[in-house]
Amino acid sequence: MLSVYKTLFLDYLENKTTIKEPKNLYEPIQYILSLGGKKLRPILALLATDAFDVDPKKALDVALAIEIFHNFTLIHDDIMDAAPLRRGEITVHEKWNTNIGILSGDAMLILAYQQLESYEPIIFKELTQLFSKTGIEVCEGQQLDIDFETRDDVTIDEYLEMIRLKTAVLVASSLKMGAIIAKVSKEEAQKMYDFGMNLGIAFQLQDDYLDAFGNPKTFGKQVGGDIIENKKTFLYIKALELCNENDKIELETLFSRKLEKNQQKIDSVKLIFVNSNAANQTKSAIKFYTEKAFAILETISIAKDKKQLLRNFGLQLMDRSI
Predict the structure, then answer these.
(1) pLDDT tops 60 at residue 321
(2) CATH number, domain at 169?
(3) Residue 213, SS3 per DSSP
(4) Positive or negative CA dihedral for 161, 165, 171, 172?
(5) Does residue 159 contact residue 232 with C-beta atoms inside 8 Å?
(6) What pLDDT does 222 receive?
(7) How far apart are CA 321 and CA 40, in angstroms?
(8) How far apart are CA 275 and CA 290, in angstroms?
(9) Per-residue confidence (pLDDT) for residue 322, from 0 to 100
(10) 3-state DSSP assignment of residue 140
(11) Residue 318: pLDDT band by 50, 70, 90 thresholds?
């Protein structure tokens, strides 16, 4: 059933993306939008609208706005990270150049808002207010992530707030925007948002976990990438909190320098993650936020089969099979 939403969206995306002049502005946009990806955020928007028994096709412009916005953030993130690859392909700034990447990204932000113009004024206002709030929160999350790179005192609460802003709010907003299209009560729309928020936090925590302990064949990214980049993830912060003094010194030393693709470093850090119980604590946190999301889902006034569909989405997201 979930594949139906994805097919519906991909068909719409294909019909909507065209290259026009100047080509150096629009070709990078089409390129990043064609690079695949799970399309989980637009799927959630369509799914939320359908959950309230409204034709999901009515949410296609919202779904497209969300996907364009998400990919705009990826172009700019890749520039900030000097990333050579995105979804296994050359990043926009590497394929063209940094200036083109910045400008095409800027254009995508504007194009995202333009997708919302098809909705009636009262719905348009609600959508744009939420979209603007979400956009600034994503920027706040990205800045916190950058700030954390030069800090040695990041707490678990600070980290959770960063991933809430950087990742979870867009998942939450995708669901809420779908609910807004369905013209449900503010209370029901908020429940959808809260469900998505907790699911988004669980998703990012699982991403942290899989980065260290995932299967390279199914994870889709380089396992150990966060360790190589010295990223202060939930695993790292929790390990520092729990490990003995010798392991703490070793972990801080290993994270004080960058060693390109150093397998010994990855193995040493992973061992500390396991021995300190940080790995199990991370799995417990993933379970906590997933169960919290599902508990909120149970309170939403939608049919049982639609609840099951949203639950299945969450479970598949956690299994990385979508």
Answers:
(1) no
(2) 1.10.600.10
(3) helix
(4) positive
(5) yes
(6) 66
(7) 11
(8) 25
(9) 39
(10) helix
(11) confident
Q: Which residue has the tokens 């989405």?
A: 313
Residue 320 has pLDDT above 70, yes or no: no
Question: Would you say how long the chain is, in residues?
Answer: 322
Distance (Å, whole) CA 193 – CA 207? 21
Q: Which residue has the tokens 């359908």?
A: 50
Number of domains in the chain: 1
Residue 11 burial by Cβ neighbours in a 10 Å radius (0-12, 13-18, 19+): exposed
Element (H, E) at 171: helix 169-181
**Structure tokens given for 307:** 């609840």
3-state secondary structure of 315: helix
Cβ–Cβ < 8 Å for 44, 98: no
Residue given tokens 């678990």 in the structure block: 156
- pLDDT of 252-286, one tens digit each? 999 987 766 688 999 999 999 999 999 999 999 99
Look up tokens 């637009």; give the residue.
42
Q: Give the pLDDT mean for 240-252.
A: 95
Domain that holds residue 129: 2-319
Place of tokens 């790995």: 279
> What does the pLDDT average to over 136-149?
94
Report how far residue 263's alpha carbon sits from residue 274's, in angstroms, rounded to the nearest whole number: 16
